[in-house]
Amino acid sequence: MTDRFVTRGFVGRRTAPASGDVHDRIPPGQYLTTDFPVLSAGPTPRIPLDQWSLTVEGLVRESVSWTWDEFMRLPNREWVVDISCVTKWTKLDMRWRGVSVDTLLENVELVPKAAFVIAWSDGGYTTNLPLADVLNGQAFVAWEYDGKPLSPEHGGPARLVVPGRYFWKSAKWLRGLRIQEGDKPGFWESLGYHNRGDQWLEERYSGD
Amino acid sequence: MAGLLAWQLATVSAIRQETSSVRSFTLRLPRWPGHRPGQHVDLRLTAEDGYSVERSYSIASEPERGEDVDITVERISDGEVSPFLHDVVIEGDRLEVRGPIGGYFVWEAALGGPLFLVGGGSGVVPLMAMLRHRRRAGSTAPARLLLSSRHEAEIIYRDELDRLAGAGDGFEVIHTLTRSQPAGWTGYNRRIDARMLAEVLDPVGVSARVYICGPTALVETAANALVALGLAPDRVRTERFGPTGT
Amino acid sequence: MIDHTDDPTVDRVLDGNALAGLFESLFGLDMTLTPGRCANCGTINRVGAMRAYTGGPGAVLRCPACDEVVIRIVQTVEATYVDARGAAFLRFERG
Fold first, then answer.
1. Segment 86-115 of chain A within 8 Å of chain C by CB
2. In a domain, B3, yes or no
């Protein structure tokens, strides 16, 4: 702790975590929030659903693309997960509906060298993850939040959600997953943020 | 020069309620180099556990005030900082302040006019610094302020603006009230748009220096309209304030 | 300027003035007046006029004419990262 001047009476917008079960669900250095902050790196993309598509491409035998109608027909389920943003807020029990990334990848044949996935979005945002971090129920593409269609400011029509990683890895306005042999740091990973971003290991910045 | 812009401890020497949700704080700073109308300060608040937040606030007072600096803050009910400033801070409290900051959104009498100011809600704050300075400097450069507020009771600095406009030195204020208007109101009653700007700008003309401050949507609507009316883009200076009431 | 008035989050967007304190404490000069040429569309805008997206993991300054990223800034515990590849140049007047 630095010798910082403390402002009398200032606490900030944080809820002190309750003891017991809830306390254990909050990763190190995080604060509990009950709202759902909107944080963006750019203007809110607006794409008509009849122009939207989601693509899995790259190191696959054949790339595959779904229109919105086709995407809606994929097996989907409800997910209730805790989310942590690197800006220190954590929100518990967020209720989403979406398609598991496993389901998407069942529709392609991965080339053996495939090791990483680059998620890319409308508006130019990218984030990178090892393939191993998005398999086996660890990631999904959500199109509904809290029982309602995902709003544009929160990443609608569909966004990636990777609950085990800081929320910058949960790319809003998702349009594609590009499978690669090599890793490629995404928008924030290339400017000082941690390449992997595991909130339980407090992997916020590169070098952590 | 690096090192001049450092955090220093200001003492709150006075607090004044401007409207029911807007409050001004006079800050006394130990080493204040003076400022230019339109500049702002950064405030830093730190909790006991080290959690800290920063906010920027336009300086409301004119440089001629000397070592004291006023900021004017609207209380945003779900905000993190403004409720603290309104509900907790009292005279004698100390706050970390850094400034003065910013040379782009600055008007001084030496720049001359005409001067065309467009404000929405608490966006009027830096414009007020310019107007207070204009009066103190004895400038007679033609000046007009188009100020958007939701309700009459929410107009910040209402009485002072009326006094400045009554001084006969070439300054006029035009209000628009966007949500409700008092009985008998003959002024504008809608959000600022291109047609309104054309009408209000007309007596001042396209050679004006323009400063627009308020919520981003208002600022961008006004800036686009004024450039379309023929003002040179670099003479249309903007400061986007973030979400406030207009 | 591009019309963003139909963007639901438009009023959260600030501009280079909001980053002025950060820039001045970093570089020792007021950057709000600094003109920068957008590497994407070529228009020149002062940093104070660039649209700023803040509050997330970092700050992004975008060109008001074409929306492309001009400058990105991240502050970690130890350092501040600045990516100015989106600026073909930044012009600092002498004297």
1. 86-87
2. no
Lowest-pLDDT choice from A18-32, B11-25, B49-63, C14-28: A18-32
Q: What integer is the mean pLDDT of B63-81?
A: 93
Range of the domain at A95: 51-201
Three-class DSSP category at A184 = coil
Neighbours of A, requiring at least 3 CB pairs below 8 Å, are B, C
Greater confidence, B51 or A120?
Answer: A120
User: What total number of domains does chain B contain?
Assistant: 2
Q: Do B80 and A13 touch (CB under 8 A)?
A: yes
Given B101, B123, B154, which residue is the final one in a domain? B101
Rounded to whole angstroms, the Cα distance separating A63 from A57 reads 4
pLDDT interval class at A143 (50, 70, 90): very high
Yes or no, beta carbons of B101 and C48 under 8 Å apart: no
Is B46 in contact with A9 (Cβ distance < 8 A)? no
Higher pLDDT, A205 or A207: A205
Instruction: Please provide residue B167's backbone torsions phi and psi, each rounded to the nearest 5 degrees.
Output: -80, -10
Instruction: Determine the structural domain holding residue B182 and report its residue range.
Output: 109-240
Contact check, Cβ <8 Å, B50/A14: no
Among B101, B210, B235, most C C-beta atoms within 10 A, so best to mutate, is: B101
Mind giving me the DSSP string for C16-85?
A: GGGGHHHHHHHHSS--TT-EEEETTT--EEEGGGSEEE-SSSSEEEE-TTT--EEEEEEE-SS-EEEE-T
Cα–Cα distance measured from residue A25 to residue A92, given in angstroms and rounded to the nearest whole number: 8
Q: What is the ipTM score, two decimals?
A: 0.96
Residue A20 predicted with pLDDT over 80: no
pLDDT at C48 over 60: yes
Same domain, B31 and B124: no
Q: State residue A86's pLDDT score.
A: 96
**What is the rounded CA–CA span in Å between residue B116 and residue B222?**
11
Asked if the structure places residue B1 within a domain, the reply is: no
Please state, for a pLDDT cut of 90, what percent of chain B lies above it: 91
The answer to whether residue A9 sits within a structural domain is no
Quick: pLDDT tens for B98-127.
999 999 999 999 999 999 999 999 999 999
Instruction: Tell if the CB–CB gap between B216 and C49 is shorter than 8 Å.
Output: no
- To the nearest 10°, report the CA torsion of B163, B167, B169, B172: 40
Q: Is the model's pLDDT at A15 over the cut of 90?
A: no
Instruction: Tell if the CB–CB gap between A31 and B45 is shorter than 8 Å.
Output: no
CA distance C3 to chain B (A): 8
Q: Report chain A residues whose CB lies below 8 A from the CB of C60.
A: 41-42
DSSP A169: G
In terms of pTM, does the model score above 0.80? yes
Among chain C residues, the shortest Cα distance to B246 is held by C11
